[in-house]
Records
---
Amino acid sequence: MTGALAARWQAVRERVAQACVQAGRAVDDVTILPVTKTFGVDVVEEAVSLGLHRFGENKVQEIVAKATPLAGAGIDWVMIGHLQTNKARDVARVAAEVQSLDRPELAAALDRYLQAEGRAMDCLIQVKTSPEPSKYGLAVEDLPGFLRSMSAYSSLRVRGLMTLAIASDNEADVRTCFRTLAECRERARDGGFAIDRLSMGMSGDFGLAIAEGSTEVRIGSAIFGSRG
Ligand SMILES: *Cc1c(COP(=O)(O)O)cnc(C)c1O
């Protein structure tokens, strides 16, 4: 197993680098966020032994469950899944970053608990770029107002935007989602918001995301194998 994980990690790094070159971008423009959801503490430990220390998870309970046995491993847990407001307190306690900030009540709750913890947190705003009803995220047209409102929350440092593209074999439709997020960032910058990061692209679509300007790809199955 050890050899297998190391080999898949290396292969993903090479594929991401190739996608950067194909897109005419520098290889170190794009960070890989390994997504460990559903995988156990043993797998995370193995990834740590490869030098990885920042992992994406989509459930708060799962971060809490893994953070305890892995305390001391120097891991930054990144929340990438839909977040209920009543979980904001746990997130403020255990997560290093939230990429799924998508509504005012959640921002207010997170800020309140972070203040209580005496810390600040980087966050990305999740934007809904796909028409699928199953996808979460702030509506594109609500982004400017939401960005303005964030100045009230001194514990939340907005660094960029995140999205999930439509699940489709149609590359043009997938690219449209990624392009929409990149356009959102350009408009935000034109409006004076200093945001850099675009978290977009997963195992099945990271090449298209990198072509559209992704700065961070969230990769689970291509690194850790298929989930149950
Ligand atoms: C699971 C997940 C990923 C990774 O998906 P893979 O297809 O396994 O690479 C990325 N982003 C989010 C929000 C996820 O929940």
---
Amino acid sequence: MDQNWKPRTRAVHGGSRRSQYGELSEAIFLTQGFVYDTAESAEARFIKANSDEFIYARYGNPTIAMFEDRIAGIEGAEDAFATASGMAAVSASLLAMLRQGDHVLSARALFSSCLFVLEEILPRFGISVTFVDGTSLDQWKQAIQPNTKAVFLETISNPTLEVIDLEEVAKIAHQVDAKVIVDNVFSTPVFSKALALGVDIVIYSSTKHIDGQGRALGGIILSNQEFIRTIIEPYMKHTGGSMSPFTAWIMLKSLETLDLRVHAQANSAQKMAEVLYGQQKLKRVIYPGHISHDQFDLVMKQIGSGGTVLSIDFSDGQGAAFRFLNSLKVAKISNNLGDAKTIATHPATTTHQRLSKDRKDELGITPGLVRISIGLEDSEDLIDDVLQAVKKA
Ligand SMILES: *Cc1c(COP(=O)(O)O)cnc(C)c1O
């Protein structure tokens, strides 16, 4: 790959490995194993394989390597490791580097499975975890400890779309040499500048915008070569959460259109937000790209776009939210996001159902809150659909 290529060129050509047939579209290598010419070459490969030599698909495979190299090129990361799901990436990034006695500092507004890993699993192994309001730099400063080894956060957060100042949090973390891990789904690789802002490890659930068509689960861990090869690779190789070659091919080909899709979705989300502000039945419209968002300046500096998701909150609570959902004709009721299809979700009764009422209140997950992930439909059809459903709510 030419180092001067811009992200959209990298998204189309980065990471390609052509076979002797010179295929135009990247091949799917559906093979778990590889054949060696001689016993000596098998031995040599087990001692040290170069980046085009493979041993077993749990360790790596040409199609998986193409996906890893291509997304690393888009994100501006030295290296990447693909995983079976977003949660395999989240759990590996933590478990691969932490040990008994370590401390983790995390923002409290998290995807509920991430919360489970931090709150339920890590403490079983003697790892302590503290949660803070991620938007308060004072809380980050106060809660950091000499033994803090990892700082974990999501930006933009789900479903209330809060933005955390990555540059400032990274400075606080690096004072004690803690690594900053960002679960970056809502920023997408298209808008992310996380590594340039000082973040050490970026994670995506590729199930979301990267696939973008609701087909396959996947995840990716991006960082420097040292972290990926000495911390992540041995852990992934031996614990088994690797991505399948078929999934890697879906994700690889999807990267070619990611930039176009995400920009189109973000443009429609912006238009939708402008129309929804001022609707009487809504007590809140949350869209990071709207000037009324509390952190609008930070959003523009850090992401440069409001992203593809917005949340609305009905004054009349769950009844109104359900009437809205049940009246939608174009948008689908589901819990994925980043998809070509517009998806509406009621977090309080689905994705965040498990949380106690106090926790929901603390996180702003009210009974009237609906999250809308904007898809690729014509924006006029979408706006008409959402407005007619708001009227019926
Ligand atoms: C979806 C999601 C995950 C989990 O990803 P899976 O691919 O479903 O395992 C983790 N974090 C965030 C922010 C997500 O949106």
